[in-house]
## 1
Amino acid sequence: MQYWTTSVNPAAWVAMALAVCFLLNIVAVKWYGESEFIMASTKILLLIGLVMLTFITMVGGNPKHDVYGFRNWSHGVMYEYYTDGATGRFLGFFSVMVYAAFSVAGPDLPALAAGEIQNPRWTIPRVVKMTFYRIVGFYVVGVLAVGIICSPRDPRLLSAINAGAAGSNASPWVIGIQNLGIHGLPDLINVLILFSGWSCGNAYLYSSSRTLYSLARDGQAPKFLLKCNSSGVPIYCVLTVSLLSCISFLVADTSAVTVLYWFIDLTTCALIITYTSMVCVFLGWYRALKAQGIDRKTALPFTAPFMPYFSIIAVTIGSLITLFNGFSVFKPFSVQGFITAYFGLAFFVVMFVFWKIYHKTEFVDPATADLYSGKAEIDEECRIWEDGGLEERRKAELAQMHWAKRMWEKMW
C-alpha cells in the first residue's frame, strides 16, 4: 500500500476512479446498484470494524495492554475555535457541524432513484426509515469511537494537519492505531478508504446525472440531455457530469488539501441549500394536502413523524448554517474563503430571482395545487408489484433465511 501511495502518479488514480464511475453509470441501473452495494458494503464493514477495534483496545486488547478507556477525554471534548471561552467552544461545535453536513450527504438519493427502483412504494419507505438508524449508527457512533481512540491534541495528528498530509496519514483512526503499536491495519484502512471514495463518486455521478436529466425534462436544461441509451440511462447527462468531474484532477497537485477545503466549502453550502429547499417543498406540499382535505396517514404509503414541526426546525437550522457557515473568513477577511463559502448562496438567489422574473412564475395556492397529475401512470406501473404479492413473497424468503443473513438483508 505504501507503494501505491507514493509510486503511482495521483493523477492516474483520479483518472482511473473517474473511468470506473463513468462505466458503472452508463450500464443499466441493475448493475450500477450491484456495484454500489458492494462498494458501500466496504464502508459499513470498515466502520463496524473500527468501532469494534476501539472498544477492544480501550479495555486493554492491544499490544501495549494499555487500558486507556476515556483517557483522551480527560481534557474535555469541546475545544475552542476562532476565539476564546464559551463562544470559542460554540464556534468549534458549529464549525464541526458544518463539516458534518458535507459528510452526511446522500439521504436524498432514494428520491432521485425512485424512477428506477422496483416496487418504489414498498422499497423507498423501507430504505428511508433505515437511513436514520444508519446515520446514528455509522456517523454518531463512529465520531464517538474516533474521539476515544485518538486525542484531538495528539502531536502527530496536529503535525499531519498542519503539514497538509493526505489520505490515511492524517486520519485519527490510523494515528490512534499506530500509537497502540498495531501494525498492518493502516494499509487495510487505506484500501477500504479507496473503495469508499469510489462509492461516493459513483453515487454522486448517478445523482448529478439524474438531477440534470430532470432539469432537462422540466425545460431548465438543454433538450439533448434527454437522450437515453437502450438501458434507459441518460447517456449525455452522465457524459456531461463526467466531464465536469475532471475538476477532480486539481487534488492531484501538491496543494491537494487546500483544494479539498475549497470543495468542502462549495459543496457544503450547496448541499445545505439543497436540503433546505427540499424541506421547503415538503412544507408547501404539506400545506396543499391540508388545504385540500387529504389525510397523509391514509393517502400515503409512508409518513414521516412529527411533521411539520421537524421540517420547520430543519428549515431554521439550514438557513442559519447557510448564512453563518463562512463566519471565519471575515476577520481577517479572505476573498478566497468568502467566495467558496458563499458562492452557492449567491448562485441560488440569483437563479431563483432570474427564473421568477424571466418566466413570470407565481407561487402556487395550496388549495389549488395539482397533486394528482402523473399519479394514474404511477399506479399502473406499480400494479405489477402491488397486485402480485411481492411483499408477501419477500417476507416468506426472509423467514427461510438464516438469522444472520436475514439481519443483513434487512439492513438494505
## 2
Amino acid sequence: MSRPLAAATSAADKRAALRAGLNSNRIQRLPGAFNPLVATLIQEIGFEGVYVSGAVVSADLALPDIGLTTLSEVTERSRQIARVTDLPVLVDADTGFGEPMNAARTVALLEDAGIAGLHLEDQVNPKRCGHLDGKAVVPTADMVRRVRAAVAARRDPNFVICARTDAAGLEGVDAAIDRARAYADAGADLIFTEALPAAADFEKFRAAVSIPLLANMTEFGKSDLLSARTLEAIGYNAVIYPVSTLRLAMSAAEAGLREIDRTGTQAGLLDRMQHRSRLYELVRYERYAEFDSHIYDFASERGRR
C-alpha cells in the first residue's frame, strides 16, 4: 500500500536528482510554491523541481522582502513543502541570515529539513528584492567566505550550493562575471545571475562561466521574460519562476473578494473556483481514507486473534 503521509522519495535521492538534472542537457524548471499544496500541483504537472522564494515567504507573512524573515520561518515553510513532494526543492536563503557561520548553520538546518539545495546572495544584509533599486553588494571576498562556509557545512555532497550575484545592475555584467568565477572557485555548484536585462546578457554570462547557471524569470522585473526553450538553447541549466503562483492566486482572490463585496454572493464565481473534488484529488483524500481503513482493519484482525 502506498504511503499517503509524505513523499516517497528520500531527501538524498531528491538531491541526487537535482544535481543530475543540472548536469543534464535539459533545463530544470522550478516554479515557486507558496504552500505545500502548490508544490503538489507542480509535481503533478511535470516540472523538474520546486522553488521556495524568500520574497514569497515574506509576502505570505505580509512582510516586504527586505530581510525581515528569520531562518526558522524559512526552514519550517521549506520543510512543509519538501515533505509533500518527490521533486527536489531549492530554497532562497537570502544572505545566509548573518555572517559566514550563520550561512553554515543555514545549510545544516535546511539539509535536515529535506531540502535539495539553497542559494546565497552577495547583497549587504539586510537585503532587498533583486529587481528593485537601492541594493548594495558586499566585497567579493566577503561573499567568498559565505560560500566557503556553506560548502564546508554540508554533509551530503549532493546538496547544491548556489551562489547568487546581484552585481550586474550595480557594477556591470563584467564585474558580475568576475564575481561568479570567484564564487565557483570557492566551491559553488551553481551560479544565479540576478536581474540580467536581455538575452545577450545571459549569453555573455554563459560564455564566461563554466559551471551550471540559473536564470530568474520573475514578472515585472528588470529581465526580459525568456522562455525555458530559449534559456536552454543559450545553455542555462535551471530557471525559476519564483512569484508566479502567488501572483496568480492573489489576483484571483482579490477579484473574487471584490465581487463578493459588490454583489453579496459568490454564486457568480463558482466556475472560477477549484472544485472540491479537484482539491480532494490533490490532497489525496482517498489514499488517506484507504490508509485509515487499512490500519483499522489491521487492528481489528489483531484483536480477534
## 3
Amino acid sequence: MKYNTLLVMMLLSSSAMASELPSFLDQNDINNAEFTCLGEESQYNEDDQKYVDILWNETLQYLESYAVALTNSENGPCLNSDEAMYDSTEGGKNMCIMDRRDMKLMVKNIYQVINNPNKAKKCFGAREDVNWIYSPGGELEQNSPVAKWLKRESFNSFFDNKVTNKDVRKMGKEFTKNFAKMVMGDEVKMPSAFPTDISANALPNLWAAAGWFPMYAQESKRNDKNFNNIRGGYAYAEIFGHWGLLRIDEINKQKVGAEVGMTVQSVDTLYPYHNHAISEIYYNMRVPACANEFTTFAVREDSKLVTTVREDSNVRTVQFDAGQFNAQSQWLSSSAEHDPLMYFHQNTIHAFEVDGSCEAKPEERAIVSVWARSNANDKRNDYGTTLLCESAKNPGTPAHSDEVIQCDLTKLKW
C-alpha cells in the first residue's frame, strides 16, 4: 500500500472516531466542547504536518480504546465500569472504577477530545522542541516514519551522556537494546475490556515517537532510596497531559487533570514502595510466562496496617511492616489476563515486582502498562512528585519487601 493511501485511510478513520457515550455523561457537555490549550498552537509546514497527522490519529485511537475499556462492564459486576483492585492487603479489595468522580471526569475529557477532534487538535503537537524526552531508538524507531522524522535524542545517547552511575548506565543500555522486544510481540496483549489493540504492535508510531523519559536514571537525592536496576530499567511516555503531546488546560472552562500514557518496567526488578498525592491507574498488558510473575502491593493510607510515627502540617510519616507473617499474601498477581486494572487513591503506598526467573530470555521482557493520573491539575497537592519510601531501620536507603518500610504522605488540601 502506498504511503499517501495509508495516510488517507488513517485520516478517514479518525473522522469517524466519535463513539457512543457512557450513560453517565451528558451529551450536551460533550458536543461542541471548547478547549483552552497549555501553550501556543504548534505550527507545521505541509511536509511535516503529514507526520503530525499520523501521530494524532494514533493518539485518538489510543484514547478512545482506553475510555471504552474503563467503562466496559462485560467482565464483572459493575455498571458502565471496569473493575479495579485498589488495595492488595487482607485478601485484596476491588471496586467499580467509575464509582470514582475523578475517573468519570477523565473519561469525560477523553470523550470531549475524540468527539471534537478538530478543536482538540489545536492543543496537540509532536513536542519536537522538548529536550528531556527521548526516542527508544532501535527497531521501534526504524519501523516508524514519524520517529525517524522527529529525530529525538536516543536512549543510547541519554544513558551515555546524562547518566553518571556506571551500573545504571550499563542496565539502561541493556534496557535500550531490548526495548522493542519488550513492547512488541505476542507476549504483549490487551486486556479483554479494550475494544482494539493499542499496543506498539498496532500503534507503532505512537509508541516510537511519543517521547519517553527514564525518570529515575539521572542522579537525584530521591534515588538514594531506589534500586539501580529499576533506575536503568524503567521509562514512561505521556500522550495526554501537561507534559504530553496533547496539552489541554481547560475544556468548557473546567480544568483538565488527566494524564494518560504508558510505562515499561523490565523484569527482575522491584519498583520500590512509593506514593504520591495524585490518583493513578494502570492496565497491565503482558501475558506472564508463569503464575505470579507480575505482582502488585497496595495499601491505603487509612488502613489499620499503617502506623503514624510523626507528622507536621504538611506531611504524615507512616510505617508498614512488609516483612510480617504472611507478607507475601499482601501481593496480588496482575496481568493482561488476570485482574489487569489497578487504581491507587491519593497517598496509597504501592510497589510493583516482576519476577523474571521463569522467562527464557528475561533481558527481553518487561511489564508494559497503560498508565494514567486523573487529578494532576490540583497543584496544591504536590503535582508530579513521586515520593519513594525508605527502610525504617536504615533511613535514606531503599526499602526491601521483607522489612518495615517508612513513607512520607502528603497531607491533601481540598
